[in-house]
Amino acid sequence: MKLKHILPLALILLLTLACLINPGATGAGTQGNLLPQPLAGLDKLTHYTASLTVSTQAKTAAGSVDRTEQYSLSAWPSQSAAFEQINSFDDANQPLKMTFGKVGQADYLLWNGDTGCRASLDSQAIQVDATNLSPFLYALKSGTPAPDETVAGLPTHAYTLDSASIGIKGLQASGEVWLAASGGFLVKYHLVLTGGQALFGPDGQGTRTLDYALTAVNDGSPVAYPADCQPISTDIPAMSDAQAVQRLSQDLQFTSASSLAQLQAYYKDYFTGQGWVAVTNYSLPSGEQDILYSQASTGRTAMLALQPQGTLTAVEILDFAGSAAQSSSSTVQTPASTNQNPTLVITTSLSKVLGNPKTPGVFSSCSLKMSENMPSASGTDSTSLQAELQGANYHYVMTTNGAKTEAIHLNGSDYSVVNGKAQPGSVMDTLNWSMWPMDAVVIFGAAAGASPTAQPASTWEGRPVDVYSVDSTKTGAPLPDTSMGLLPFSVTSINGTFWIDHATGGLIKADLQFEADVKNPGQATPIAHGQGLLQITVSQIGQASVSLP
């Protein structure tokens, strides 16, 4: 469970903005009387959106320039929240699209082509407010009064502008400006500048047009995250001795010198104190401890994963979203109490069928069939599983890329089946049975993060079942990496359907198609990408049996 390393957002933004800011405009006319500080006063508003378009047509020493750049800032100053979107060009004159923002102490950054925000609690505070636009806007020394107007719902005083308004040698100017009648802040700004070196450097000549508009002033809008950015999980605390803390959307990661028992006790106290309930508790052969908590009042589920790493313990908490809206169809039945939260239903459905040494599965017996195609560095790995479960006993036949394993666990004893005959089992037989659900748990976790939606109810072998569909392309947000860096893949998109037993919450069927990045465990950079398939079917409920051949 290696923690992700992200270049501090503050450094990235400083480097980027340094390339975008026009040195000819920076600080121009700062001693003016009409508008000495173009964006002063906006910090007193509860909400606003400021838009700026910069159009340039010029001939410079480097060649002709004809381009338009756009900047948009939505801010909630009283809540310390703001997001800015940039459509501009980099030093190589290539299109640059970037969204960055700050909500409280959380920083967000979305680059060209990113499918989701980089998000973290950055130790280097970045600034996202009107000052990011001010280098483009010229202070105004003077203006000629024009008839008052109402702009964007605000009474304003209007002024026409000329070269004297700017007062910079070598610049010709014309335009208009509108200032709020109450507060005096800038509401609208149209300025056309024509000049040479003062704008475009030696041997340069051309025109630059600045159009600025303020809208949505104090309209009561709540903080709105861009489509590809999600709030960072900040309410779940890190242990007091936490090191290398990384908070991402729906994800908290750190390392701790505390023991597994201490960490379990700490988070048990926290979660239960906040009304959460422990739903499942897994101990994996690797030593990892996974505990799933659910909070009924909010519909949230959280997976606590504790992995010993030498003298430290790696901790990851995946905070899944609340339940998705139910379908309005009259044929959608109200799920049983165990099935009220689709996210919780999906993440716990397989474990309810398999059970564990302390808790038997919800079905007295059943048959289980699984088929999996998993992207790999060499192409696709295929695994099939046919199993009979009866209480704590099981009999399985597993085939992976053509290699077959058959084993039986009966009344506390383990057996390998070779040529149809049972013989004393091996540790590997038991390990195969313990490990095969791990891929499914990761894939189910990704599906749970894709806002499962209730579908019309159905039946299976005469049993009422709840049906849920998932399609990550409809959420507008990246999926959480539920592999936690332990497995050689992470799901990037997923769609499909789950059928869940209405009475018990146990899995009946899953039919899922997904795409995944293939990674070396502990490394962030994918080495391959491909499509995968996972199908699981549970049948013969109450009719299966396990015995020796």
Task: Describe this entry's structure for a reader.
The protein is mostly beta strands and 549 residues long. It has three domains: 9-215, Clam (outer membrane lipoprotein receptor (LolB), chain A), CATH 2.50.20; 243-319, Kinase associated domain 1, KA1 (TATA-Binding Protein, 2-Layer Sandwich); 323-401 and 431-539, no CATH class. The protein contains seven helices and 28 strands. The chain has an eleven-stranded antiparallel beta sheet. The protein has an eleven-stranded antiparallel beta sheet with strand order 23-22-21-20-19-18-28-27-26-25-24. The protein has a six-stranded antiparallel beta sheet with strand order 12-13-17-16-15-14, sandwiched between helices.
Tally of helical segments: 7
Strand order, biggest sheet?
A: 6-5-4-3-2-1-11-10-9-8-7
Q: In angstroms, what separates the terminal alpha carbons?
A: 41 Å
* Domains (count): 3
Q: Give the C-alpha Rg.
A: 30 Å
Regions with little confidence, pLDDT below 50 for 5+ residues? 1-31, 321-339
